[in-house]
Amino acid sequence: GGGGGGGEERGKGEGAEEEEEEEEEEEEEEEEEEEEEEEEEEDDHKQQQEEQSEVHR
Fold first, then answer.
1. Pairwise CA distance, residues 28 & 31, whole Å
2. CA distances from 10 to 37, 48, 49 (A)
3. For residue 55, is pLDDT > 80?
4. How far apart are alpha carbons 51 and 49 in whole angstroms?
5. Which portions of the chain have biased composition (kind: Acidic residues) (predicted)?
6. What's the rounded mean pLDDT across residues 24-30?
7. Cα 51 to chain centroid, rounded
8. Is residue 19 part of a domain?
9. CB neighbours (10 Å) of residue 16?
10. Are the C-beta atoms of 37 and 44 separated by less than 8 Å?
11. 47 lies in which domain range?
12. CA–CA dist 40, 33 (Å, integer)
């Protein structure tokens, strides 16, 4: 959340803050999922390299 919105946010009071926290948690979860996917892709790449090197033997 980039600090803007002023009056409207204050009008909602604490409820708005709770909503913002939930959104931040969701974003963190998405980032973790992306990192896991990248690790899986790296594992696939290693397996492919091993298979290729076995073929060359």
1. 5
2. 39, 55, 56
3. no
4. 5
5. 16-43
6. 82
7. 31
8. yes
9. 14
10. no
11. 12-56
12. 11
Query: Which residue type is seen at 56?
Result: H
Model pTM score? 0.26
Total count of domains within the chain: 1
Domain-embedded: residue 6: no
DSSP 50: H
What pLDDT band is residue 28 in, cutting at 50, 70 and 90? confident
Q: Is residue 1 part of a domain?
A: no
Under 8 Å CB-to-CB from 16, ≥6 apart: which residues? 9
3 found inside a domain: no
**Residue from 1, 57, 9 nearest 27 by CA:** 1
CA atoms of 19 and 25, how far apart (whole Å): 10
